[in-house]
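[agent] plan:
  1. take the single chain provided in the ticket
  2. run structure prediction with default settings
  3. attach structure tokens to the ticket
  4. add a short note for the reviewer (M.T.)
[agent] executing step 1
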Amino acid sequence: MIFYFTGTGNSAWVANRLAETLHDERFSISQLLHEKRIQYTFPLKEEEKVIVVFPVHSWGPPSFVLSFIKQLSFTNYTGQPVYAVCTCGDDCGYTKQLFATAVVKQGWNFRNCYSVTMPNNYILFPGFDVDRKEVEKEKLQNAFPTVERIADAIRTGTSADIYDQGTMPFLKSRMIHPLFNKYVVGKNSFYATDKCVSCGLCKNVCPTGTISMQEGLPQWNDTCIQCLACIHRCPQRAIEYGKRTLRKGRYQHPDNKRILNITTKEYNS
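[agent] step 2 finished; step 3 output follows
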């Protein structure tokens, strides 16, 4: 059973590959939280595994995903293992430990966390931009064998060290990550330029319902979690974030049209 959260398509691609390889069912966390239930309960088979796929947000799990974990429950749970697979542009810091803590608090059996290096997409901070095209291509190519190794480790239940913690993990995950959640999440400077054609795609792909259309233009409220689905997936490149993104690139996974077709329908439902 695979639960996934995605912004620009990297984690959706990983979840899709795992589902195909492991012959498993996947569920969009965004779609589930749009239903606004108090609790989300799923039946588990005796030998079933739980896999949660998500992008790393400022060297930690997205607050959106941790909120979902608190509301998630299982029937017939007898210690089935829970895995995490996170996607990151460079390194993950203590994302593994932070996610493990949330899982253990639920009384579940945390087994392991793996990471897949994917193209960078966080462009809101000074000095942060998308990767050069050659770097993007290399990361996408290398992701295929990495996901296969992860799937094999999960299938067989064997231990595998497929996780890029990186340097200075304490600084990144114990200091910068909490500051990101406190001062960045929930606040934004997004706006639509005169290139906007009022297609509404940004509203439809926003996982938190942050965007509404007013007089044909998108407006952002204070529930933004910085997933950047809106700015990267705008077909007209009509969304900017203050002046920080004016000269920066845009990225979405090249398989978005195929992989996220279902996700887009989910957001629209």
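[agent] step 4 note for reviewer: Residues 133-156 form the longest helix (24 residues).
[agent] ticket updated
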